[in-house]
Design goal:
Elements lengths: L8 H13 L2 H15 L8 E2 L5 E2 L3 E3 L4 E8 L5 E3 L4 E5 L7 E9 L5 E3 L4 E10 L14 E4 L1 E6 L2 E5 L7 E11 L3
Parallel strand pairs: 1-5, 7-13
Antiparallel strand pairs: 2-4, 3-4, 4-9, 5-8, 6-7, 6-11, 9-13, 10-13, 11-12
Length: 181
């Protein structure tokens, strides 16, 4: 029977020999050799994500007062996403007839590394319309209703609809948005 030694066993045997041979100097030399062997070539940081490489297929409702929008890096390279989205309701379902909304930012923006296929999410909160079909706003404002939302990210806009097939309905023209995570 032929015996083979795994690659991981050699450093352990070498360490044992160094320790038995005596001396911190020998142990230090081993550590330096080990560090040099495991050092990887530095990699350039990924470029900022562009809207052309991101996709978002729908907005998942989060309770009665928000939606979670998840963007996916569709490639061709890794990228870094940071910050908050802009938000608009697409008037009559058309992004060129949108109603920009005022966004109040929640949380601290940090860089999110997105490999190809990686995901980042933001939660967009709003004042919901009360009541059933004819809904009303407690403030007395007219409800705003649209079949889709336009989320600004990566220097462009992504249009999406609620995952449940309904409409976006909110009171006022202000929303909150968490930083992408």
């Amino acid at each position: 029977m032929r015996r083979t030694r795994s690659r991981g066993a050699a450093p352990a045997l070498l360490l044992t020999a160094v320790v038995l041979a005596g001396g911190p100097a020998a142990g230090t030399a081993f550590a330096d050799v080990r560090a040099d062997r495991s050092a990887a070539a530095p990699t350039a940081p990924a470029a900022p994500c562009r809207h052309t490489q991101l996709i978002a297929d729908s907005a998942q409702r989060v309770g009665a007062t928000g939606v979670r929008v998840t963007v996916i890096n569709d490639g061709p390279k890794a990228c870094v996403l940071q910050g908050f989205p802009t938000v608009a309701l697409a008037g009559q379902g058309s992004p060129d007839k949108n109603l920009p909304l005022s966004v109040s930012r929640r949380g601290q923006a940090r860089p999110v590394d997105l490999p190809v296929g990686g995901r980042a999410s933001t939660v967009i909160g709003f004042k919901p319309v009360m009541g059933e079909a004819g809904g009303y706003c407690p403030s007395g404002a007219e409800p705003t209703v649209a079949p889709s939302m336009v989320v600004g990210v990566g220097g462009g806009a992504l249009q999406l609809a609620p995952a449940d097939g309904g409409d976006f309905a909110l009171c006022g023209t202000a929303v909150t948005a968490s930083a992408f995570r």
